[in-house]
Amino acid sequence: MTYKKTVIAVDDSGIVLKRLDNLLSQIYDFHAFSKADRALVYLETNTPSLIILDIDMPVMNGFQALKKIREHDHLKDIPVIFLTSNNDREHVIRAVQSGASDYVAKPIEEQILLNKINTLIYHK
């Protein structure tokens, strides 16, 4: 039996999560979270193959969420893609310096995102 790799996404936009679900659920075991704290509860007992994080979210932003994710030994090496509508130079630099594996600007170019996900999951 072949198991699908698990991808989770955290974004406060239901539209973005639905689009990601449509794009990824046929290929991956996909889990969507609208709040970072809910994703962190899931991640306490689960180890996905990849995490997609929105940066600009209320309550806990993507940078704060990534810091908490990296505090768990079983999640230290999990690839993280930041997904955000803010793609100015300083934001990109901060994303990379914070430990993200990659950065994708919204609106989502589906083929680019899929290529990045596949590269990070299968060519670590």
User: How would you write the strand order of the largest sheet?
Assistant: 2-1-3-4-5
Beta-strand residue percentage: 15-25%
CATH superfamily annotation: Response regulator
Under CATH at level 1, the class stands as: Alpha Beta
**Straight-line N-to-C gap:** 23 Å
The helical percent reads 40-55%
Provide key terms for this protein.
single chain, 124 residues, alpha/beta, Rossmann fold, 5-stranded parallel β-sheet, 5 helices
Structure description:
The protein has about 120 residues and is an alpha/beta fold. It has a single domain (about 5-120), classed as Response regulator (Rossmann fold), CATH 3.40.50.2300. The chain has helices spanning about 15-25, 35-45, 60-70, 90-95, 110-120, and strands spanning about 5-10, 30-35, 50-55, 80-85, 100-105. Strands 2-1-3-4-5 form a 5-stranded parallel sheet, with helices on both faces. Strand 4, helix 4 and strand 5 form a beta-alpha-beta unit. The protein is globular. The chain starts with 5 loop residues before the first strand and ends with a helix. The mean pLDDT is about 90.
